[in-house]
Amino acid sequence: MSMQSCVKEIVVVVVVVAAAVAHVIIVVVVTIVVVIVVVVVVVVVVVVVVVVVVVVVVEVVVAEVVVAEVVVIAVVVVK
Q1: How far is CA 40 from CA 8, 14, 51, in A?
Q2: 2: phi then psi, degrees, rounded to nearest 5
Q3: 79 DSSP assignment
Q4: pLDDT on residue 53
Q5: Dihedral of CA 60/65/70/72: which sign?
Q6: Where are the transmembrane segments (predicted)?
């Protein structure tokens, strides 16, 4: 084998290895980004659900208090 063909083979191997490493790095980065996006979406959904539940509970409690006050006022007025 001549020196030139040896160098060509080494260059080809280096390019192939570099391409493989770049591919793995891209896959890992994309996977990390997807995981981060999924986690953010899940957190946002959980926060929205918690806020909605809290608002509904507060509404129900306020409604109960208002109904109780109306009943008390009605009883007082009737007496």
Answers
A1: 48, 39, 16
A2: -85, 165
A3: -
A4: 94
A5: positive
A6: 12-39, 45-78
pLDDT tens profile 55-73: 999 888 887 777 777 777 7
For 18, the token pair is 């570099």
Distance CA 26, CA 22 (A): 6
Chain-centre distance for alpha carbon 77? 55
Sign of the Cα torsion 72, 74, 77, 79 reads: negative
**Cα 36 versus chain centre, distance:** 6
In the chain, alpha helices (H): 3-78
pLDDT in tens, 22-51: 999 999 999 999 999 999 999 999 999 999
How far is residue 5's CA from residue 12's CA, in Å, rounded to a whole number?
Answer: 10
